Amino acid sequence: MNLADHYYEQGRKGDPYLPLNVRWAIRVAASVYREIGEVIRRAGYRVREQRHFVPTGRKLRIVAAGLGAGVGDRVSMSLGNVSSSLMTGVTDMKPEAFYLAIFGLSLTCVIGTVMFALVGMNPKVDNYDKLPWNYSIGCAVMAAVLGWWSRRLAIKLPVQ
User: Fold this and answer.
1) pTM of the predicted model, to two decimals?
2) How far apart are CA 67 and CA 83, in angstroms?
3) Roughly what angle, to the nearest 10 degrees, separates helices 56-79 and 20-42?
């Protein structure tokens, strides 16, 4: 099992070289088989005494995680490498696209602010008294920060 774990880790390093349309399926299959190995490991490697399997709920979580990673791969391919850009400000994304992404996020946060405020004004459940307002305030703060950031980025854009 330790050797298999080593091979799984080595295989993950090759993920970026797989075509996008099959990458997530290969990741999911590897994750399910690795999970079967974990089940066998937890059972003390007694493989002849019983059949080992991954419960359906756990498989569904693995598939959902794989699909999420697949969507993330597609987004990062279309936008450019932005994984560390939020922390470092360095990206290979076109400045116009990066500005639009940050500006779009700020507008999304404005919409979130309004929606959560509306839920806070008309709660359907009694114990929903503070949560929507907390979310609304959080969205408003994020909208302000992202709006400020997008204005700073707009200043740096080349004039056409």
Assistant:
1) 0.46
2) 18
3) 150
Residues present in the chain in total: 160
| pLDDT surpasses 70 at 136 | yes
Amino acid occupying residue 141: V
Name which of 34, 81, 36 is nearest 54 in CA terms: 36
CA atoms within 13 A on the CB side of 96: 3
Tokens of 22: 């099959």
What is the tens place of the pLDDT at every residue in 53-100?
Answer: 888 888 888 888 777 776 666 666 655 554 444 444 444 567 777 788
Tokens 């990673």 belong to which residue? 69
Contact status, residue 105 vs residue 146, Cβ threshold 8 Å: yes
DSSP symbols for 5-20: HHHHHHHHHTGGGS-H
